[in-house]
Every structure is written in C-alpha cells, then in structure tokens.
Amino acid sequence: MAYVISFANQKGGVGKTTSAVNIATYLAVLKKKVLLIDLDPQGSATSGVGIQKHSVKFTSYEVLIRECDIFDAILPTNYKNLSVIPSNVSLAAADYELISEKDREYFLKEQMDKLKRNGDFDYIIIDCPPSLGLTTINALTASNGIILPIQCEYYALEGLSQLMSTIKRIKNSYNPRLRVVGILVTMYNSRLKLSSQVFDELNKYYCEKIFRTKISRSVALSEAPSYGEPIYYYSRYSKSSLEYEDVAKEILERTEFFM
Ligand SMILES: Nc1ncnc2c1ncn2[C@@H]1O[C@H](COP(=O)(O)OP(=O)(O)O)[C@@H](O)[C@H]1O
Ligand SMILES: [Mg+2]
Q1: Is residue 206 part of a domain?
Q2: d(Cα 210, Cα 200) in Å, to the nearest integer?
Q3: What is the pLDDT of residues 105-146, one digit of tens each?
Q4: Residue 186 in domain
Q5: Domain count for the chain
Q6: 165-220: per-residue pLDDT in tens?
Q7: Which of 3, 53, 74, 185 is most deeply packed, by most CB within 10 A?
C-alpha cells in the first residue's frame, strides 16, 4: 500500500512546493516508487520536475472532479522512480465546483484508493494550495500523513495553531487515521534573531513533531525550479540538497512502520 503525505499550510511562500518536490525526488533516489500530485493551480511542482504544465492532457483538476481516471493523469518525469500528476490554472475552479456536490470531501480519496490498491507506488506526495478550501480538505481526507512546512517568522505560530485545529476537524469528520508526520522548518537563517526566537517557541509546543533537520535559506534552492530540476539534480552536494536528503530519510523512519 502506498503511504500518502500532504504538504500543507494555508500560508503561501512557506516552502510547501519546494519541500514536496525535493522530498519526492529524494524518496525516489532512495529507491522508493514515488508519485507527486500537484494540487496547486499555480502548477509550480509540475514545472519544478520539468513538465510543461500547459501541454498536458489531464491534470489533477480532472482527477479531482472525476472527469478522468486517476491512472490516465499520471506522467513519467525525466527522473528515475518519479511520476507526477500535473496541474495548471484550470484547478482554480475546483473549490467552487465541488461545493454543491454530495460527499465532496471524498472525491480525491475515491480516486486515490484505486491507486493505493494497485501497488505501483510506495509514496504519494501531494503539494497543496495555500488555502484550507475543499481542494486541501480533499487532499487531507485522502492522506495518511501530513507534513507542515513552516517558516520561522512572526505570525508562523498563529498560522500553525489554526492549521492544527483544521487537522483535528478533518480527523474528526473525514479521516480519523490522519497523522502529523512532522513539522519542517524551512528557509531557516540561524543568524536572524527572530528565526531562532520563533524556533525556540515552536520547540516548546511541538518539540517531538519537528524534524531534526531544518532547511536553510539557499540560493540554489530558489534557482533550481527555473531549470525544471529538483535540487538533487541541480546541485547534488549543496547544503540544502543534503538537508532534504536527511529529511527524506527521517520521513522513511517515521512512516515505514505504518506501511
Ligand atoms: N530554503 C529556501 N531558500 C531559499 N529560497 C527558498 C527556499 N525554499 C523555498 N524558496 C523559495 O521561496 C519561494 C516560495 O517557496 P514555495 O516552495 O513555492 O512555497 P509555497 O509552496 O509554500 O508557496 C519560492 O520562490 C522558492 O523558490
Ligand atoms: Mg506552492
């Protein structure tokens, strides 16, 4: 059975997509069969793995609203063990279109269950949009675990407690087995006093959930997407590449027991 992990945070620009792309790639490098599902209409995860988002036949939008079978939307990438379900701006309509549907929270889960049973993948990584709308709720309903990327800045903790209550609500209503795999600190700069202060505060409340490795702020990480390359292929031995490798290994430790 595949283990499904959503990368979610209602804030934009916190490193969801960067983390989803690079962790999916590292899990694939570590010999796991990985499917990356782009569930953000911006399509950054799609282009981040080198797929032209406007030239694809089916996207996560058609999958979500059941206009195509999930198997038909899966594309191979140029990277070993890594496939993708792309997205583009068409997905922006999904939240609105789903609202009048019965069982609208379960649409993605239904599609995903077929895929999980089929056994083609070990890990399915979902890159969520920066909102807590129906698209994200569908992702969390279909997931085994969630990873919360967080940037150590002033309002981070407030956003995190809101997100934690959403997770609780989804657990109670739609997906009792959903668990927090971990909180991932991104774009960390230890020389910034605010970063370390926020990190200390975060540590007080969520100590055991925070990944051992933090992702540092790095130029290579922000450059790699414009070449359609995950950091492993763009700059294998850069600091942030090795950090993502460590996090991927930690994810294996934290999830393999449940597979
Ligand atoms: N560790 C990092 N160091 C430097 N830039 C980063 C880092 N992580 C992400 N970025 C950049 O920050 C921006 C927002 O990141 P992104 O992963 O797209 O966030 P989200 O998906 O949460 O909106 C992007 O331009 C990305 O390239
Ligand atoms: Mg994103």
Answers
A1: yes
A2: 11
A3: 999 999 999 998 888 999 999 999 999 999 999 999 999 999
A4: yes
A5: 1
A6: 999 999 999 999 999 999 999 999 988 999 999 999 999 999 999 999 999 999 99
A7: 185
Q: Is residue 257 part of a domain?
A: no
The verdict on residue 43 lying in a domain is yes
Q: Using CA positions, which residue lies closest to atom 5 of ligand 1? A: 222
Q: What is the CATH number of the domain that holds 198?
A: 3.40.50.300
| Placement of tokens 């393999």 in the chain | 256
Who lines ligand 1 at CB under 6 A? 12-18, 44, 130, 186-187, 215, 217-218, 221-222, 225, 240
The answer to whether the Cα torsion of 169, 171, 175, 179 is positive or negative is positive
